[in-house]
Amino acid sequence: MTSPTPLLKLKGIFRLQWEPAQDAHVLLYPEGMVKLNQSAGEILKRCDGTRDIDTLIADLQQAFNTQDLGDEVRLFIAEAGRRGWLEEAS
Hints:
Layout: E1 8-10, E2 15-19, E3 24-29, E4 32-35, H1 38-45, H2 53-63, H3 70-82, E5 86-88
Antiparallel strand pairs: 1-5, 2-3, 3-4
């Protein structure tokens, strides 16, 4: 039996918001800001501690009426984790 995938959320020092001046979602933190592309913004919006990766992928596929996003989303989640943006929700 495999263990359940974790619920993901942004680490507490980060804040995701829409920035009209940038016409994009940005990830704010004490030392600065990261401007996100549309895909990254949509993925991080869903990292709210209520979804695991599979649920997040299903939500994106339904929202954008597409399939086969799993690999790309998993790659982005891995990179966001490597950058320290995400943590497991408790």
